[in-house]
Sequence to fold (407 residues):
Amino acid sequence: MKTSTSQPRRTQVGIIGAGPAGLLLSQLLHQQGISSVVLENRSRQRVETRQRAGLLEQNTVDLLREAGAAARLDRQGLVHDGVLLSYNGQRHRVALAELTGGAHVTIYAQPEVIKDLIARRLDTGGTILFEADATRIEGLETDSPTIHYTYQGEALALECDFVAGCDGFHGIARQAAPAGFFKTYDKVYPYCWLGILARVAPSTDELIYAFHERGFALHSMRSSEISRLYVQCDPADTVDDWPDARIWAELHQRLGTAGWTLQEGPILEKTITPMRSFVTEPMQYERLFLAGDAAHIVPPTGGKGLNMAVADTKNLFDALRAHYQDGDDALLRGYSAACMRRVWRVQEFSNYMTEMLHLLPGKPAFDQYLQQSRFDLLTTCEAASRVLAENYVGMASHRASEGVALA
Ligand code: RFL
Ligand code: PHB
Fold:
C-alpha cells in the first residue's frame, strides 16, 4: 500500500460520505475542537447538484444554524404553516402550525443544504476529499480503526478513533461488521416516483399531496420560479416512457380540483426514484457508528430521509462530544437505542403517508375503502389531523436534542 504525505493519515473521527449527515457531523465536531476527515467518492459538482429532498423540519433548520450554515437558508427558505391533502380532487388543509402549537416546515432544496455545508466546512479549514472511494474498514475492535480508500489513483489509509458511516444506502460501512451482526428489515413498494423540476412558478403556496384513482401526485416547489412535482409510476418505467406532455396530463388530472389550474413550464430534469423502507439494527458496531441513509431509508412521501439523517447526526455528535470533552461514553453506548425509537416512529409515519396516498395496482377493493376512510378521518377528526401534523413537522418528543431512549 502506498502512503501519501499530502493526505491526512490520522484524525479523530473518520467520516465516510459527504451527504447531509457526514458534512454536518464534521462541522459540528470542528466547532468543538474535534478533528475529522470526510471521504466522498463522488465529485464536488455531483454532490452539489443531486436533486433530492426539499422539506426541512424545524429541528433540521436549528441544527444547520448551530453549524453556521443557515444564512442562505434563512433568507431563501420558504416557511410553510400548512399542507394540502387531496383525495380524487377533494382537498383538505392540515394546519400544521395551528395543530402543533406553532411548528412549521421549511422548503429548501437538499443540493443547497449541501452547497452551504461544504462552503462552511471548507471556510473553517475542514478536509473533504472528493472522489475518494472508501473501500474497506479494518480494526473496528481496536482503539484505532483504519479506513482504506483510493484517491487520485493511490491506495491510502486513514487511521482514526471512530468511524462515522454516513455513506448512504449503497455505502460500504454496513459491510464492515461481521456477517449477520446487523439485522435488517425492509419493505419494497410496487411503485416509483417520477420527479421533475420545472421552470414555472408554483401553482400553490403550500405542498399538495394527492391520492387519485390514476395514482399519487405531489406538487412541491423550490423557489418562486421553480416547481418540483412528482407522479407515481410503474417500477418498470424509464424516463423515456414519460414524455413531457404525458407528465403534465397526469399532473393536471391527479392534482386537479374545481377552480384551480396547474401552470406548466419547461421541464429541466426528470428522475425516477424507487420506494423502499429499510432499517438496520443496531446502528453501531464497536467503533463504527452508522448515521442517515446508511442505517435506514424511508419512502419520500413523509419528507423524512434528510431530517432523520440530521437527527442521527445530532445524537452522534452529542455522544462524541461527551466522549472527548467529559470522558463519558454513556451516550456512545446508548447511541443506537436513542436513535431507534425515533427511527421506527418515522418509518411508521412514512409508511402511513405512502400507503394512504398511493394507488396499489390491482389491490382488492376492501383496501381501497380503508384508504379512503383514512383520508376521510383526517377531514372529520381534528385529533387525526393533529397526529399527522405532529409527525410531519417532527415529533417534539423525538427531537434529537431530547435523546429519547427505549424504556
Ligand atoms: P446521502 O445523502 O446518500 O450521502 C451519502 C454519501 O456517501 C457517499 N458514499 C461514499 N463515499 C466514499 N466512499 C464510499 N464507498 C461511499 N459510498 C457512498 C455518497 O456518494 C453520498 O454522497 O446520505 P445521508 O447523508 O444519510 O442523507 C440522506 C438524505 O440524502 C436522504 O435521506 C434524502 O435525500 C431523502 N429524501 C428526502 N428527505 C427529507 O428529509 N425530505 C424530503 O423532502 C425528501 N425528499 C428524498 C426526497 C430522497 C429522494 N430520492 C432521490 C431518494 C425526495 C427524493 C426524490
Ligand atoms: C420535495 O420538495 O422534493 C419533497 C417535498 C416533500 C416530500 C418529498 C419531496 O414529501
